[in-house]
Amino acid sequence: MVRLELDKVVMRRMKEDDIEMVKALIKITMPRSTGVLGSSRPYWDYVGSSYRGTQDETLPNPFSRISGKTPGTKKPRRKITPKDKDKELPTENVSPEREQEAGLVWVADCDGEILGCIFRESEKRADIRRICRVVTGSWYRREGLGRLLVHSLEQREMEAGALRVYTHVPFPSKLGEAFFRKLGYRQIGEGTDDEEDFEKNKLETPERGFLGHPLTKVFYKDL
Hints:
Aminopeptidase; globular; alpha+beta; 7 helices
């Protein structure tokens, strides 16, 4: 376990140069139940999700405000080396429609090293957001990185007008369930929901397998 200074972490949009590093991070953590904390998509359009704007877009980091430090990014240091590291990434023409449908990926960057990432699905309803996946590197677990990624994304979406965030946790993942509960998320069906909540939650159903058994538990949090 490595001691992580959260005030040095920059949470920025994933760029095309980051795609292979993000895939490698997910591949390393995927076999472990502690790797993927929330997931509702079996695939992702990485190229469509990569940032193509003229300005770097970042999530707010409350720790940098507390410490007074201004985190900065350096040239990525390829600590996780994919097999095809020497192969250049193809540059595709991505339409605005594809980019909108692909959703967003944010990476946690510290001194040029990607430590984790969070995936937000495309907007289907104006005031609703859905976190698809949260991944942290094995060296940086229990350091508050996952919590920082989720809280920072929640803050951004709340400022953009979102009122509720959903996340789908794989059914056997006790860690994922405990993680989101600690962050204030509730499972659909727990407690007594009013009529408005009931109508909202009807539109967010768990994924089901071939035989109809639920594969995910749906959690939500009001912002």
